[in-house]
From TrEMBL:
Residue span, UspA domain: 7-130
Organism encoding this protein: Haloferax sulfurifontis ATCC BAA-897
One Pfam short name: Usp
Protein name, per record: Universal stress protein
InterPro entries according to UniProt: Rossmann-like_a/b/a_fold, UspA
Top-level taxon in the UniProt lineage: Archaea
Amino acid sequence: MSKSITKHLVVPVANEEDARETARVLDSYEYGQVTVVHVIEKGGGVPDKLPLEQAELRASDVFGAFRGFIPEADTETAYSRDVVAAIIDVAADVDASAIAFHPRGGSRLVQFLSGDTALKLITDADRPVISLPEQTENK
């Protein structure tokens, strides 16, 4: 028996601009349930990048930007040193059929230096990963 790859998507977003662009692109396709996830990176023995209250406020703003296009989206905030592992864990927790993301730009050098999160997500995920295109046609 086959199952729909887009029955329940987990969609990671990093910031408000990423959330808006990802939701805009995703909304031009058919999909089932959507859970948008924002990972608050923890320092792990060093100071966090942002104070917790500020990071949680940013997550709220990110979710609001996404819901501007897809108001029915569920939200999850994850706290982790490992962004990719956190996304995969959320996907497992909500029993997602796939993970869909909109790759952010950057030169190959920037991607190499940052560890290329997209590549890690594609190679480490235990379920299908869908890369949304840069441009889409209107519905």
